[in-house]
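Exercise 3.2. Students should predict the tertiary structure of the chain below and write it as structure tokens, then compare their answer with the key that follows.

Predict this chain's 3D structure.
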Amino acid sequence: MIGRFAPSPTGPLHLGSLVAAIGSWLFARKENGRWLVRMEDIDTPRVVPGSAEEILAALRRYALEWDGEVVWQSQRTALYERALNELRAKGLVYDCACSRADLARAASAPLGSEPVYPGTCRNGIASGKAARAIRFRVPDEIIAFDDLVVGHQQENVAEGTGDFVVRRADGLFAYQLAVVVDDAEQGVTQVVRGADLLASTPRQIALQRALGYSTPAYAHLPLVVNPDGSKLGKRDGALPLPTLDDARVRETLALALTHLGIEGIVEGSPGEMLELALRAVRV
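Answer key:
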């Protein structure tokens, strides 16, 4: 068993991220597996200087010790380039000239849904247009998997999303490609993360199959939300939820465990509390 926690260093660790970290740690350690940490800093415009170090320091405060060295996506672009070249050799990616304005004009999706790419450049770029992004040619098939938390899931990505971007117009590799390559290269066998990434899973499985990678097991944990029901994020300001400062480690650790369904663990050091949680958890 090899699990991982892969935060984006766009701000300090918040309670929702802590829940994901603890959940993935518990899944891995319950099976006597390894737990890796990877900094997903490939989206450089969104990276906040110093936040990666803050995240790692917070993990240590909560006794969430990882195995091996921390991996940084920004240092792995050669791996993503190689995977992209492999997809191109197989005819599974193509250049796209569509701008955001083009996509907005062509979009037809229910309110709150992600627009489906209409395939504008699938058979070649129109005369007078220049390539911007690179898209993955999605197969027209049902992709199904059994999530360890939310159960059976399936989607025809061609119908639900359409061909999606694997290299952005700014030249950066897209999250979907980078995470698939990283998980395969690191030998990850189980991905435990927040439910906000559930919709990305069929796309990632499609890429795994195209590249000949194994598909890990998936577990998507319930999100921590604000009192108004909105997703808790790093950009939130003065939140009513407790912050993860040094003085409140035990309180916030207990709160995160309760969110994961492990109640009544409120005493001891962070390491002792996690050991009690390991005894209580069933995976």
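Discussion points: The CA atoms of residues 150 and 220 lie 7 Å apart. The first helix runs from residue 15 to 30.
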